[in-house]
Amino acid sequence: MNENFNRRDFLKTVGLGAASFAFSGCTGFSGRAPSRSKLPNIIYILADDMGYGDLTCLNKSSKIPTANMDRIATEGIHFTDAHSPSAVCTPTRYGILTGRYCWRTHLKKGVLWGYSPALIEPQRLTIASLLKKHGYRTACVGKWHLGLDWATTDGKKPASREEQTKAQNIDFTKPFGGGPNELGFDYFFGIPASLDMIPYLYVENDHAVDIPGNEIEKSPWPAFYRPGPIAPGFKHIEVLPTITNKAVQFIEEHTKQSPENPFFLYFPLTAPHQPWVPADFVKGRSRAGVYGDFVFQVDWTVGQVLDTLDKLKLTDNTLIIVTSDNGSHWKKDFIKEYSHRANYHFRGMKADIWDGGHRIPFIARWPGKIKPGTSSDETICLSDLMATSAAIVSRELPDNAGEDSYNILPALLGKKLDKHIRQATVHHSSRGFFSIRRGKWKLILGRGSGGFSKPNHIEPKPGEPKGQLYNLQKDIAEENNLWAGRPDVVRRLTELLEKYKKQGYSREPKTK
To answer: Rounded to an integer, what distance in angstroms lies between the CA atom of residue 363 and that of residue 319?
Structure first.
């Protein structure tokens, strides 16, 4: 796949300069694609650390008004059993864009940092390069967090995590590699990693917008961010409004310049991930503190996109999906203080292997295609967006792409399913705990949360269960460990997980 070219001079402003795109090395597409005029615009809005229970359409007891997201659910569909492939940021984003579990890469636990090298292999098919091949104008606006190949002043690797506070050898004046422009996106604007990770600056296409000139001190919880270099004028509280404006600009500019072509907007938000810094105009709008106000601002951002689609008369031909990269970072103390369950009745929180870490909100609207006010209990995973995108353009994925991605378009459209779409779903925690879910059964290899909840790891004593097994049909809170009593299920699911690991895919190849 020949995607390594410099677009710095090519794309100066939002929406300008659709470039030609060489697409080779990924074969296996067949059939006749719909004409470009019939293909829908596609928008994926990915909230950062927003829980299932934050949305009032999914949790009537939520203390946060989410009118715009509720509107999408009312006018479309919501899923009650949707999951992220990981309970933390980077691995989920890798899975979304590639349709492949991130634990198949060198990143076996945790997340990347602001100066980490690019994680997605340059030759790998992504949603963006797939859709671009079929006439889509593609944009990524928001939080990247998949690594960038920064230039350095000494020609050596970027400073290690321990040294990064001073960004000792990063050359911000030169273009970086490995970013969205080399993976199928025509345009990129956003920040390198999470809003609490250095460097604090905006990046556009393949370069930094401003060069860091100051050092910022660590900020305390809940407006937590790490100390380090910051660009002039960069303010954490302004990031979500800024990327919202850029996303709206992309839609507007594209509609003016290329109305005959569809667009794909991948819009990974920076909120409600820490630092919790809601804008002044949303403060006090929830009953869940500054976190709740920040979620309210996420809903405001969704509303800006919906209003833009309505204004430009794009609503009827746009598939919009709103979801989250993992569960909320909402602790037991916060539940007690605000009587708000950000992760609904699921056990645990962000980073955990329990469902609170990876069961997420997933709502979608596509007028005329998705029946309004519907719901689905089909088990889906965000890695499925890859195969689903291929199905939208009437293509099948080649065997060397989207290895863990299943087409969920039939479930989105409310089709009657003869069998479940996924054979099974693998989950991963921040500490590298594995879990596999098939039907009502959920197997966890290891004891404890594997993440932020305590205890995060339990060393079993002789004779104690080595892992966890839950019947989610009867025990949604994952409280009754059946490992010892159902060795048959433990064996069967363990064997299936090991099969997925060894063979390199979970979606059966077409050529098998």
So the answer is: 11
Number of folded domains that form the chain: 2
Residues with Cβ within 8 Å of 278's Cβ and at least 6 positions away in sequence, in order, are 237, 290, 293, 294, 296, 297
Instruction: Tell me phi and psi for residue 203, to 5 degrees.
Output: -125, 145
Mean pLDDT of 319-338: 97
CATH of the domain at 455: 3.30.1120.10
Residue 156: pLDDT over 90: no
367 and 485 inside one domain: no
Alpha-carbon radius of gyration of the chain: 22
3-state secondary structure 231-271: CCCCCHHHHHHHHHHHHHHHHHHHHHHCCCCCEEEEEECCC
In a domain, residue 28? The reply is no
Domain membership flag for residue 401? yes
Q: Is residue 31 part of a domain?
A: no
For the stretch 83-103, pLDDT in tens is 999 999 999 999 999 999 999
Contacts of 493 (CB under 8 A, 6+ apart): 424, 436, 438, 441, 443, 469
**What is the three-class DSSP state of 72?**
helix
Task: Please tell me the total number of residues recorded for the chain in this structure.
Answer: 512
Q: Mean pLDDT throughout 124-149? A: 98
- Report the alpha-carbon distance of residue 490 to residue 445 in Å, rounded: 10
Q: Are residues 462 and 494 in the same domain?
A: yes
Residue 113 CA to residue 36 CA, distance in Å, equals 38
Could you list the residue range(s) of the whole structural domain that residue 470 is in?
Answer: 426-503
